[in-house]
Amino acid sequence: MKILALDSSGLVASVAIIEDEEMTAEYTINYKKTHSQTLLPMIDEVAKMINLDMATIDAIAITAGPGSFTGLRIGSATAKGLGLALDKPLIAVPTLEALAYSLYGSEALIVPLMDARRNQVYTGVYYFAGSEIKTLKEQCAEDIQETISYLNSEKRSVIFLGDGVPVHCEVICEKMQGEYSFAPAHLNRQRAGALGALAKAYYQAGILQSADEYRPDYLRVSQAERERAEKEKMDCK
After folding, report:
1. Which of 21, 72, 89, 172 has the fewest CB atoms within 10 Å distance of its CB?
2. In sequence order, which ranges of 90-222 are alpha helices (DSSP H)?
3. How far is Cα of residue 13 from the mean position of the Cα atoms in its chain?
4. In the chain, beta strands by DSSP E
Protein backbone atom coordinates (compact mmCIF):
# COMPACT_ATOMS: atom_id res chain seq x y z
CA MET A 1 0.00 0.00 0.00
CA LYS A 2 1.35 3.40 -0.98
CA ILE A 3 -0.29 6.65 0.17
CA LEU A 4 0.51 10.22 -0.81
CA ALA A 5 -0.43 12.50 2.11
CA LEU A 6 -1.01 16.26 1.74
CA ASP A 7 -1.66 18.79 4.50
CA SER A 8 -2.15 22.50 3.85
CA SER A 9 -4.84 23.10 6.47
CA GLY A 10 -2.82 25.56 8.55
CA LEU A 11 0.39 27.57 8.47
CA VAL A 12 2.39 24.43 7.65
CA ALA A 13 2.63 22.80 4.24
CA SER A 14 3.51 19.11 4.42
CA VAL A 15 3.82 16.21 1.99
CA ALA A 16 4.65 12.58 2.78
CA ILE A 17 4.75 9.14 1.22
CA ILE A 18 3.70 6.18 3.38
CA GLU A 19 4.50 2.78 1.90
CA ASP A 20 3.31 -0.25 3.90
CA GLU A 21 4.92 0.19 7.35
CA GLU A 22 7.48 2.79 6.24
CA MET A 23 7.47 6.54 5.71
CA THR A 24 9.74 6.85 2.70
CA ALA A 25 9.63 10.65 2.50
CA GLU A 26 8.31 13.71 4.31
CA TYR A 27 8.73 17.36 3.33
CA THR A 28 7.39 19.96 5.76
CA ILE A 29 7.68 23.75 5.66
CA ASN A 30 6.50 26.26 8.23
CA TYR A 31 7.39 29.53 6.56
CA LYS A 32 5.75 32.68 5.23
CA LYS A 33 4.83 31.42 1.78
CA THR A 34 1.41 30.59 0.43
CA HIS A 35 0.60 26.94 -0.13
CA SER A 36 -0.10 27.70 -3.77
CA GLN A 37 3.64 28.46 -4.07
CA THR A 38 4.87 25.44 -2.13
CA LEU A 39 2.59 22.40 -2.30
CA LEU A 40 3.03 21.25 -5.91
CA PRO A 41 6.81 21.91 -5.95
CA MET A 42 7.08 19.92 -2.70
CA ILE A 43 5.22 16.97 -4.23
CA ASP A 44 7.46 17.16 -7.30
CA GLU A 45 10.62 17.28 -5.16
CA VAL A 46 9.57 14.31 -3.04
CA ALA A 47 8.76 12.29 -6.17
CA LYS A 48 12.16 13.09 -7.66
CA MET A 49 14.10 12.31 -4.48
CA ILE A 50 12.64 8.79 -4.12
CA ASN A 51 12.11 8.07 -7.83
CA LEU A 52 8.37 7.84 -7.26
CA ASP A 53 6.13 6.85 -10.14
CA MET A 54 2.93 8.67 -9.18
CA ALA A 55 0.87 6.05 -10.98
CA THR A 56 1.93 3.50 -8.33
CA ILE A 57 0.24 5.24 -5.39
CA ASP A 58 -2.95 3.63 -4.12
CA ALA A 59 -4.65 6.68 -2.61
CA ILE A 60 -4.22 10.35 -1.73
CA ALA A 61 -4.77 11.40 1.88
CA ILE A 62 -5.90 14.95 2.59
CA THR A 63 -6.76 16.85 5.76
CA ALA A 64 -10.46 17.50 5.31
CA GLY A 65 -10.83 20.49 7.62
CA PRO A 66 -11.26 22.56 9.61
CA GLY A 67 -8.45 25.02 9.05
CA SER A 68 -7.42 27.95 6.90
CA PHE A 69 -10.06 28.47 4.20
CA THR A 70 -7.40 29.27 1.61
CA GLY A 71 -5.17 26.40 2.70
CA LEU A 72 -8.01 23.89 2.61
CA ARG A 73 -9.06 25.03 -0.84
CA ILE A 74 -5.51 24.74 -2.18
CA GLY A 75 -5.10 21.29 -0.65
CA SER A 76 -8.50 20.22 -1.94
CA ALA A 77 -7.80 21.41 -5.48
CA THR A 78 -4.40 19.69 -5.47
CA ALA A 79 -5.72 16.37 -4.12
CA LYS A 80 -8.77 16.39 -6.42
CA GLY A 81 -6.63 17.24 -9.44
CA LEU A 82 -4.18 14.43 -8.72
CA GLY A 83 -7.00 12.02 -7.92
CA LEU A 84 -8.73 12.72 -11.21
CA ALA A 85 -5.52 12.64 -13.26
CA LEU A 86 -4.28 9.41 -11.68
CA ASP A 87 -7.74 7.83 -11.16
CA LYS A 88 -7.01 7.31 -7.46
CA PRO A 89 -9.35 7.56 -4.46
CA LEU A 90 -9.05 10.19 -1.74
CA ILE A 91 -8.85 9.55 2.00
CA ALA A 92 -10.33 12.53 3.85
CA VAL A 93 -9.12 12.70 7.47
CA PRO A 94 -10.39 15.34 9.92
CA THR A 95 -7.61 17.89 10.40
CA LEU A 96 -7.60 17.81 14.19
CA GLU A 97 -7.60 14.02 14.36
CA ALA A 98 -4.57 13.91 12.06
CA LEU A 99 -2.85 16.57 14.16
CA ALA A 100 -3.55 14.61 17.36
CA TYR A 101 -2.13 11.45 15.77
CA SER A 102 1.32 13.04 15.91
CA LEU A 103 1.27 12.24 19.63
CA TYR A 104 0.65 8.52 19.06
CA GLY A 105 0.65 6.52 22.27
CA SER A 106 0.25 9.47 24.63
CA GLU A 107 -1.51 8.65 27.89
CA ALA A 108 -2.84 12.21 28.25
CA LEU A 109 -5.83 13.78 26.56
CA ILE A 110 -4.60 15.29 23.30
CA VAL A 111 -6.02 18.72 22.50
CA PRO A 112 -5.12 20.26 19.13
CA LEU A 113 -5.72 24.01 18.94
CA MET A 114 -5.85 25.86 15.64
CA ASP A 115 -6.30 29.62 15.78
CA ALA A 116 -9.71 30.54 14.34
CA ARG A 117 -9.46 34.27 15.18
CA ARG A 118 -11.86 36.30 17.33
CA ASN A 119 -10.69 34.43 20.44
CA GLN A 120 -11.92 31.16 18.95
CA VAL A 121 -10.12 27.92 18.20
CA TYR A 122 -10.76 24.87 16.09
CA THR A 123 -10.34 22.04 18.55
CA GLY A 124 -11.30 18.53 19.58
CA VAL A 125 -10.26 16.16 22.35
CA TYR A 126 -8.60 12.80 21.63
CA TYR A 127 -6.98 9.90 23.45
CA PHE A 128 -5.37 6.58 22.60
CA ALA A 129 -6.81 3.21 23.54
CA GLY A 130 -3.89 0.96 22.71
CA SER A 131 -2.97 1.70 19.10
CA GLU A 132 -6.35 3.23 18.21
CA ILE A 133 -7.10 6.94 18.41
CA LYS A 134 -10.45 7.76 20.00
CA THR A 135 -12.52 10.94 19.99
CA LEU A 136 -13.71 12.26 23.34
CA LYS A 137 -14.99 15.56 21.91
CA GLU A 138 -15.72 16.05 18.22
CA GLN A 139 -13.87 18.80 16.39
CA CYS A 140 -15.59 22.16 16.57
CA ALA A 141 -15.06 25.92 16.53
CA GLU A 142 -15.48 27.50 19.96
CA ASP A 143 -14.17 30.12 22.37
CA ILE A 144 -10.93 29.06 24.05
CA GLN A 145 -12.60 29.60 27.44
CA GLU A 146 -15.15 26.89 26.56
CA THR A 147 -12.34 24.50 25.70
CA ILE A 148 -10.57 25.12 28.99
CA SER A 149 -13.80 24.78 30.98
CA TYR A 150 -14.48 21.41 29.34
CA LEU A 151 -10.96 20.17 30.06
CA ASN A 152 -11.11 21.29 33.68
CA SER A 153 -14.31 19.27 34.10
CA GLU A 154 -12.57 16.15 32.77
CA LYS A 155 -9.89 16.29 35.50
CA ARG A 156 -7.29 14.48 33.37
CA SER A 157 -3.78 15.29 32.20
CA VAL A 158 -3.78 17.26 28.93
CA ILE A 159 -1.25 17.96 26.21
CA PHE A 160 -1.85 20.86 23.82
CA LEU A 161 -0.47 21.29 20.31
CA GLY A 162 -1.13 23.36 17.20
CA ASP A 163 -0.74 26.94 16.01
CA GLY A 164 -3.39 28.10 18.49
CA VAL A 165 -1.10 27.33 21.44
CA PRO A 166 1.14 30.44 21.18
CA VAL A 167 -1.93 32.60 20.54
CA HIS A 168 -3.78 31.36 23.64
CA CYS A 169 -0.89 30.24 25.85
CA GLU A 170 -1.44 33.01 28.40
CA VAL A 171 -5.09 32.17 29.07
CA ILE A 172 -4.30 28.44 29.13
CA CYS A 173 -1.65 28.97 31.79
CA GLU A 174 -3.99 31.21 33.75
CA LYS A 175 -7.18 29.11 33.60
CA MET A 176 -6.15 25.44 33.41
CA GLN A 177 -6.64 23.78 36.79
CA GLY A 178 -5.21 20.33 36.21
CA GLU A 179 -1.94 18.93 34.87
CA TYR A 180 -1.11 20.04 31.33
CA SER A 181 1.83 20.43 28.97
CA PHE A 182 2.65 21.62 25.46
CA ALA A 183 3.97 19.37 22.70
CA PRO A 184 7.62 19.95 21.69
CA ALA A 185 8.58 21.73 18.48
CA HIS A 186 8.96 18.59 16.33
CA LEU A 187 5.43 17.42 17.18
CA ASN A 188 3.38 20.58 17.62
CA ARG A 189 2.28 21.29 14.04
CA GLN A 190 0.65 19.43 11.17
CA ARG A 191 2.76 16.66 9.66
CA ALA A 192 1.81 14.75 6.55
CA GLY A 193 3.59 11.70 7.97
CA ALA A 194 1.07 11.49 10.81
CA LEU A 195 -1.79 12.09 8.36
CA GLY A 196 -0.57 9.31 6.08
CA ALA A 197 -0.11 6.83 8.92
CA LEU A 198 -3.66 7.47 10.15
CA ALA A 199 -5.00 7.42 6.58
CA LYS A 200 -3.70 3.87 6.24
CA ALA A 201 -6.21 2.75 8.90
CA TYR A 202 -8.96 4.63 7.03
CA TYR A 203 -7.95 2.88 3.80
CA GLN A 204 -8.02 -0.56 5.41
CA ALA A 205 -11.49 0.23 6.79
CA GLY A 206 -12.67 1.17 3.31
CA ILE A 207 -13.25 4.84 4.17
CA LEU A 208 -12.53 6.27 0.74
CA GLN A 209 -14.16 8.61 -1.72
CA SER A 210 -13.65 9.66 -5.29
CA ALA A 211 -12.00 12.94 -6.21
CA ASP A 212 -15.36 14.12 -7.59
CA GLU A 213 -17.12 13.44 -4.26
CA TYR A 214 -14.60 15.11 -1.96
CA ARG A 215 -15.48 18.42 -0.27
CA PRO A 216 -13.58 20.07 2.61
CA ASP A 217 -15.32 20.57 5.98
CA TYR A 218 -14.87 24.22 6.93
CA LEU A 219 -16.99 23.96 10.13
CA ARG A 220 -18.03 27.59 9.77
CA VAL A 221 -18.38 30.21 7.05
CA SER A 222 -15.37 32.30 6.02
CA GLN A 223 -14.63 35.74 7.43
CA ALA A 224 -15.59 37.35 4.12
CA GLU A 225 -18.96 35.58 4.22
CA ARG A 226 -19.52 36.61 7.85
CA GLU A 227 -18.69 40.23 7.07
CA ARG A 228 -21.03 40.23 4.06
CA ALA A 229 -23.85 38.79 6.19
CA GLU A 230 -23.26 41.44 8.86
CA LYS A 231 -23.27 44.19 6.21
CA GLU A 232 -26.50 42.88 4.69
CA LYS A 233 -28.06 42.77 8.16
CA MET A 234 -27.08 46.39 8.79
CA ASP A 235 -28.38 47.46 5.36
CA CYS A 236 -31.76 45.94 6.16
CA LYS A 237 -32.19 48.05 9.31
Report:
1. 21
2. 95-100, 144-154, 164-175, 192-204
3. 11
4. 2-7, 13-19, 22-29, 59-63, 90-93, 109-115, 120-129, 132-143, 158-161, 180-182
Domains 2-94+190-221 and 96-187 share a fold: yes
Per-residue pLDDT of 30-80, as tens digits, reads: 987 889 999 999 999 999 999 999 999 999 999 999 999 999 999 999 999
What's the CA gap between 9 and 146, in Å, rounded? 23
CA 213, 96, 166, 170 dihedral sign is positive
Q: How many residues are present in the chain? A: 237
Q: Which CATH superfamily is domain 2-94+190-221 in?
A: ATPase, nucleotide binding domain (3.30.420.40)
Task: Kindly report the CATH number that applies to the domain delimited by 96-187.
Answer: 3.30.420.40
Greatest C-alpha distance within the chain: 62
Strand order across the beta sheet in which 132-143 lies? 132-143, 120-129, 109-115, 158-161, 180-182
